[in-house]
Amino acid sequence: MSEAALSRIANLISLEDDLVKIDSLRQQFVKEKSSIDIKLNSATQSQIDSITSNLNKLNKSSIKLNNIKAEIKKINSLYDESITNLSEYDIIEKMTKVNQFFTQVRNLYSDISHFKRNLDNINDLIDAEYEVITEDITYPLNYIFKIHYNLTQARNLQDYLEVESSGLSDDLKSIIFKIIQPIKKTIKKFDDLLAEVIISVTEAVKEGNNELVFKLIQIIEFESTEDLNLILKNNLDLNSNILNINYGKVRLQKRNYKKFFYDKLEDSLIETFDKCIEHFSADKMLVYDNLNWLEDELVFVNDTLSQVFPKSWELDNFMQNVYYNKLHNFTMDIIKTDPPAEDLLRILAYDNHYNKFLNKRKSVIKPQQKSIIGEDLKNVVLDDYLKVIVSKMEEWNLNLMQSETKTFKERAQPPDLYNYHQVIEDEDANDEPVVLDIESSVYVLPDFKTPLTMLKEQADVAAESGYGKILVGVIEHWSKCYLQRIMNYQAIIDEEYDNYMSIYNNERFLIKESKASRIFRGTKKRPVVNLDEMSQEELSNISKEGLLEYLAALGNTFEINTDRLQDRFLPIYKDKVHTTYQSSIEQSFSDTMDPSTNLHVQVIRTIVEIIVNDLYPALSIVFTKKWYEGGNNNHLVEDESMASRIVETIGEYMEELRGYTTYDIYSLTFTILLDTFIAAYIRIGYENILHGEGKKIDPSAVKKFKSFSEGVGRDVMAFYGGLEHLFTRKDARYLLTSLRAIEFLGDLGTCDNPMEFIPQMWENEILGSFYNCSVEYVRGICQCRKDMDKNEINLLVNQLVKTQKSYHDQVEPPASTQVVRTLDDFRYS
């Protein structure tokens, strides 16, 4: 008995009371045993029945297998008999071929007899399709597949007849030719229809007619596949025997419709471009301004049309290449005609635009197609353009300088007036800074905007080209021309000043005339003019009127233009080029700054010298007896003092200048005039004492020469009072400080114990007002003193030099706006 049964019995009779249940348990076990036996017998019988069934099936399979083997033996036997009995095999083969031949002949007869009628049906279908598609681009070519299928069958028959007739007699060949001749017309019609579809694909897709394109693609792909199959069969020599082939399904000659597609598409694109050229035949350069349609077309092809076609067709690259080649050839033809510089630049501008346009496209761009003229030729064209521009600019500049020279020298008309906005920094009554905005009319030279207009025109065109090299080249050569104009004006000023001074020179009033001339203008000899023998008209031809006005106009012109160059032109053109070119542009504009400043200085210096020249008659009596007496002499207006005459002359000039110069030129001119006039006042006074009618100053004199300090003070008061109103409050400080150079002379010339007083005054007062004061200023006044000998003066001057060096070591120089240079370069003969 199993352990499971024993365990179960143990669970049932685990208690003593359970023993009475043994009989019932026995009966229960008997029933369970009977039930298990019945189930076991049923399962066993089922397994036996299954085994019996499978054995029966196996027996049937064995019988069938034996039958198959018997049939295979019969097949092998028949095969062996067919191989071994050759005569019977040949007969069967010949009978088969005869049967195929008769069938082929019957089919040929049927197809040939209906050939013309079939072609007429195909022609009618083609004509109907062509008529609709030419009128309605949305037409989906409903019958194109039917046309293509039927025509393909006919062309296959044509191929078959042409190949098979190659070995026939000429008469038979002629018959075959007549039979197939009509198909050429049908092929031409189909090709025309297909060409119309090809050139319409772009517009069809734009109108949403993708079905037309899909059908076209399907036909071209089918033809391409069939051509490829033909090539493979020919290579494998599978078409050597075509007598009994199914000619309706077999192609014997290539159709090349893939090439046909690209050829017709290319012809269409070229025709479109040629129409654009023809439209602008009067001025072909306008083509470059009207190529938006081409760019739109390429964008559409790239973004839309190429997505409809198979990727392997590379439609976008093909169309891009066609247009590039056409554009390139068109451009090269123009360049060969040696076009003007403006046209070259327009070509370069579009070339740069075209390059940027292509770089935005997704299609693959060949490196050589990034430029419509090619990189090598582009560099040549750039150089040629710059050469042309340089040549034109030099020619233009030469003509401009000739015109400017003539205008400046003849001065037939007053200078032009220009409304100029100025910002002036000043101080109010409380010495607080204020800013004044002033609109005033100032003199400028005729056509003063011409040089900057020329720059703007050329630079704008160069900037539009997109080539920084061109823009930099234009600005660099314009800058060189600008410098040539400055040098020309400098020469004109020198010449005109010499002509003016040959007539109006007042240096004859001065002692040591030759030395004074050397101090002011160098050693250049002026024309010798005999004023007594010349008429007023002849004198006017030597130096025409209006020199001062034209000098002022010249200064204004270059000041305004310099400001415009720096404030407007430089930022604009810097922003138009890559950072690698910006420094070159900055340098070009910077190169004009110093020469322009030098020209300003020359203009102002010339104006000042003209004014000071008019002061010489009055200044000629400084520190002489007449000066002590009040300044009356036969060279001046009767009863008018020297100081009054000077104030009146300076006032007239400066009032006039204030009416037509910019404030900057006016202020700078007045500053330099003060420096020059005061230095001349002192120098001429020294020369009069040392070499002329003046007497040396005797500090110990009781009456006669004691008035020296009073005379100096009198002049200072007259100068300040007469000129103060010509300055702003801020600039009036310069007038006050510069006049101290005259005021100090009173103490320097009359002080007691000069060897002690002058060094103290030098350190405590003079250097504070004139930081770079020349020691010649003190040497001169000391030489004019009667009580100082040469040794004392030399000793004193040496002491002053040391003091000045020590002062400079200890005291920082004043700000540039506060420097007073009246005595910086002072000297006397």
Automatic annotation (TrEMBL):
One Pfam family in the UniProt entry: Sec6
Alphabetical UniProt keywords: Exocytosis, Transport
A Gene Ontology biological process term = exocyst localization
GO cellular component, alphabetical, reads:
exocyst
Q: Name one GO molecular function term.
A: SNARE binding
Supply the InterPro entries for this chain: EXOC3/Sec6 (IPR010326), EXOC3/Sec6_C (IPR042532)
Keyword Transport in the entry? The reply is yes
Q: Of which family is this protein a member? A: Belongs to the SEC6 family.
Task: Please identify the protein, giving its name as recorded.
Answer: Sec6-domain-containing protein
